[in-house]
Amino acid sequence: MKKILVTGGLGFIGSHTVVELQNEGYEVLIIDNLSNTSIDVLDQIESITGIKPTYVNIDLRVQKDVKQFFDTHEVDGVIHFAAYKAVGESVSKPLEYYQNNLNTLVYLLGELTARNIDNFIFSSSCTVYGQADQLPITESAPVKPAESPYGYSKQVGEILIRDTCKALGLNAIALRYFNPIGAHPSIKIGELPLGVPQNLIPFITQTAAGMRKELSVFGDDYPTVDGTAVRDYIHVVDLAKAHIAALGRLLQKENKTNYEFFNIGTGKGSSVLEVIKAFEKASGFPLNYKIVGRREGDITAAYADTTLANKELKWKTELSLDEALDSAWKWQQAQK
Ligand code: UD1
Asked: How many CB atoms lie within 10 A of CB 101?
């Protein structure tokens, strides 16, 4: 049984990926410092799969703790989710973001290469493309100057890994996620935003639940189908399965070069108003929203060309936007 370390394994995407790894027969070790999640997620994972993953509460910013972890645990691969992810916050706290998103990566890669541990998967983001010149976005689209320290931390993270692969022979895959949404069909794990959500779907579900007065739709003067911005919303379970596919590719040595990156989305763009309409259908009642000005740093439209991921990872999305919104709404209703 292959042992896989999942950093940030109690977070939103991490927890869904742990479930899929266990479903596929992998033994999972989780590192999480609980900075943006709850320890209860560990029990929830066990109640879905019947298996409690090994859990270690260490902070990857503490280099000696990272070393000690690898001194005492053997692993066959690493899926690295642990990072800060709030774009706005990263602008006011750049050093915290670079320290948490980059120092930790340097420490991890250092331990892996010193010990000849291979097979590394990195959480990257479609944010590296900025506003791409062509849609859908292929992997050959250029990386554009980032709008935020968060965005730069993903760009530099990719470069750190690429250079490590080149110089030290590590095999790695970066997955550039589009917009992950939804919850596990069991409704036992989902997204747990702290404070006021910045992302669209948790804001919508909290508004529908009466926790927020109304949703502000940021801009209706974009050159899109209805004037609102367009994104590629992918069900988190489909996204989790992309990690299993990428890991399998590395373990079976099917990768073509020792550093690869793939777009992980559905290939379909949806406008904010289309998402609202789909949510109203899923929940069965109208959502309170108003149109306001554009949000600084937002782009007009982004959706993935998934041809490469579909072919090379032998993976494709199976769940619809409606299913994702239905699960997000059920998850919201299950929160106390
Ligand atoms: C954001 C980040 C991206 C990150 C991703 C996942 C920015 C510029 N990008 O993507 O780097 O990887 O989250 O965490 O922040 N919207 C509203 N009202 C709201 C919230 C959102 O109209 O209250 C709109 C936005 O303007 C956007 C769409 O909904 O058009 C999606 O927004 P969001 O969920 O924040 O994701 P992104 O901005 O695409």
From this structure: 22
Residue 62, strand partner residues: none
The structure tokens listed for 192 are: 């747990």
The tens-digit pLDDT sequence of the chain (336 residues) is: 999 999 999 999 999 999 999 999 999 999 999 999 999 999 999 999 999 999 999 999 999 999 999 999 999 999 999 999 999 899 999 999 999 999 999 999 999 999 999 999 999 999 999 999 999 999 999 999 998 999 999 999 999 999 999 999 999 999 999 999 999 999 999 999 888 999 999 999 999 999 999 999 999 999 999 999 999 999 999 999 999 999 999 999 999 999 999 999 999 999 999 999 999 999 999 999 999 999 998 999 999 999 999 999 999 999 999 999 999 999 999 997
> Which class would CATH give 3-184+235-265?
alpha beta
The Cβ of residue 55 has, within 10 Å, a number of other Cβ atoms equal to 17
- Number of residues in the chain: 336
Residue 40 neighbours by CB distance under 10 Å = 12
Ligand 1: distance of its center to the CA of 310 in Å?
25
Q: Under DSSP, is residue 30 helix (H, G, I), strand (E, B) or coil?
A: strand
| Ligand 1 and 155: CB distance under 6 A | no
Q: Per the confidence metrics, is the pTM higher than 0.70?
A: yes
Domain boundaries, the chain: 3-184+235-265
Element housing 88 (H / E):
helix 87-92
The residue whose C-alpha atom lies closest to atom 31 belonging to ligand 1 is 200
Which one is catalytic: 129, 150, 177, 222?
A: 150
Give the Å distance between the CA of 288 and the centre of ligand 1.
19
Contacts of 101 (CB under 8 A, 6+ apart): 83, 84, 150, 153, 154, 157
Distance CA 302, CA 138 (A): 11
Question: Residue 329 gets which letter from DSSP?
Answer: H
